[in-house]
Write a structure and sequence with these properties.
The radius of gyration is 13 Å and the shape is elongated. Helix content is 56%, strand content 0%. By secondary structure, it is mainly α. The protein has a domain of 67 residues: Helix Hairpins. The chain is built from 5 helices and no strands. InterPro entries: DnaJ_domain, J_dom_sf. Pfam families: DnaJ (PF00226). This is J domain-containing protein.
């Protein structure tokens, strides 16, 4: 079930470290699994990691479902967020995705 605040949040793509909306589901899944693995409570037992894990899980729920993703993408196109590109390409997301 998608969180009821999902469509009010900014940029679920950037939460997963994805820079644009045109990526395939494989890339989204790869990023989700990578982030989930490094934020696993057994590996990183902190409140901040738990909160971040919740956020990436919500992002995954939205972007993994084709219908929900399409609605979210349309929302992004209708109400473009000028911060989207800046946020998505922010250097604070500096990690290496697994190959």
């Amino acid at each position: 079930m998608v969180h009821k605040l999902a469509f009010k949040a900014k940029n679920w793509y950037a939460i997963l470290g994805i820079k644009h909306i045109g990526v395939g589901i494989e890339e989204i899944e790869k990023q989700y699994k990578y982030l989930a693995s490094i934020l696993d409570p057994d590996i990183c037992p902190s409140v901040a990691a738990e909160s971040a894990l919740r956020l990436i899980h919500i992002a995954w729920e939205i972007l993994a479902d084709p219908t929900t993703r399409e609605a979210y993408d349309k929302l992004l196109l209708i109400t473009p967020d000028e911060d989207f590109l800046d946020y998505a390409s922010a250097s604070s997301y500096s990690y290496s995705a697994p190959t």
